[in-house]
Write a structure and sequence with these properties.
Distance between the termini: 28 Å
Number of helices: 17
Number of strands: 0
Shape: flat
Strand content: under 5%
Structural class: mainly alpha
Oligomer: single chain
Largest sheet: none
Helix content: over 70%
């Protein structure tokens, strides 16, 4: 997969978040939640107009260019929020975390801001650069789609269900509009043409003739998916207050963060159980039986989703903003990190395998095409 060049114009525009946030932080009128929401909407509207004026050609070629440019700006804002909450910078976004979205000051909120301000930011620049150069960015878009959707689907319900439900401010409804973006953007990304493969019909036929035992890498991935599925189900039962001794020991001695009343970890584990668990079963099937052409795309989506989720979950489990009683005990650090790192790494290895050697997942060539190819050889 070719990595497109980063969009320098978008990078320069997004850095405007630094002076804008600093100036707004010193406007006394922004001490009221409604004014914070209105000012945020106004800035996003003006930013969209500026992007349209500066990049009309790119937007007419692909409207997602405007989305990536706008979100690159908000990614810088999120990075500023995370750095401010950890004490690395001061005087930028205090007004917003106090009167706009106070739940961003939680450990989970801080780490989704770090992810958005680094990983998402680089993805936005790369995808905008691809549009500017008229190149494909489908694979990057699928990874971003999974990551962005998982972030929103955990963060918004967690705000409503957790202990910060009484502090919902008008700015929260701006975040709800973000839920519409994955629906529209995902449809456009999935509709893009796939990169052509160099697999000949003969290669596809020979690869799909091999059984699972003849493909040790796929066998290892299937075994991983089975173990990860059991781990997913187990943690889902833990947050559902399963009364078994194993669940009791795990939630108190290994991952007490799952009991945190902010509700983000509970929502995260339920997302895993209801969406990731079925995917693991389907992925194991696709690695066993040939011709499942849907797996490479969805492997990228779930790699992005699980990567974002595990980064936020692991970071929040250890962060000082998490009450001490809900942090991972020191004697459980090794087990906690090993299990969660493997849980994050596996989907990325699956996506890499699907992209690097896609022949097993392509539609089987018709007999006529195979015979014609052999004659040509």
């Amino acid at each position: 997969m070719d990595i497109p060049p980063l969009a320098g114009k978008i990078a320069a525009l997004s850095l405007g978040a630094l002076p804008v946030s600093y100036a707004l932080n010193h406007v006394s009128a922004l001490s009221h939640p409604l004014w914070v929401a209105l000012m945020s909407a106004l800035i996003l509207g003006l930013l969209f107009v500026a992007i349209y004026i500066l990049s009309g050609g790119e937007i007419s070629y692909d409207p997602l260019y405007a989305v990536f440019a706008l979100f690159a700006f908000t990614s810088v804002v999120d990075l500023i929020i995370a750095l401010q909450e950890d004490g690395y910078v001061v005087g930028f976004m205090e007004f917003y975390t106090k009167e706009g979205e106070p739940y961003l000051r939680t450990s989970h909120g801080i780490f989704i801001c770090y992810w958005d301000g680094t990983v998402h930011y680089l993805l936005y620049l790369a995808m905008a650069g691809a549009i500017h150069k008229r190149k494909r960015y489908r694979n990057l878009g699928l990874y971003w789609l999974g990551s962005f959707a998982m972030s929103i689907l955990v963060f918004l319900p967690g705000n409503i269900l957790g202990k910060y439900s009484s502090e919902i401010r008008p700015a929260f409804f701006l975040a709800i509009l973000y839920m519409l973006v994955p629906c529209w953007a995902g449809r456009k990304v999935f509709n893009q043409s796939r990169a052509p493969t160099c697999c000949t019909p003969n290669v596809v036929h020979e690869e799909q003739r091999k059984g699972l035992l003849q493909r040790p890498a796929d066998l290892a991935l299937v075994l991983y998916l089975i173990l990860a599925a059991f781990f997913t189900l187990f943690r889902g039962l833990v947050v559902l207050d399963c009364p078994t001794d194993a669940c009791f020991v795990y939630i108190y001695q290994y991952e007490p963060y799952l009991r945190d009343p902010v509700a983000y970890p509970k929502v995260q584990m339920l997302m895993y159980m209801f969406y990731v668990l079925p995917f693991y079963g389907l992925a194991a099937y696709a690695l066993t039986f040939p011709g499942c052409s849907w797996l490479p795309d969805w492997a990228l989506v779930f790699a992005g989703a699980i990567g974002q989720a595990q980064f936020s979950h692991m970071g929040a489990s250890m962060h000082l903003r998490t009450p001490f009683t809900y942090r991972v005990p020191e004697d459980a650090w090794a087990c906690f990190f090993l299990c969660n790192l493997l849980y994050a790494l596996g989907p990325h290895l699956l996506a890499y395998r699907c992209l690097r050697w896609p022949a097993f997942f392509l539609h089987p060539p018709p007999p006529g095409a195979l015979a014609h190819h052999r004659k040509q050889q």
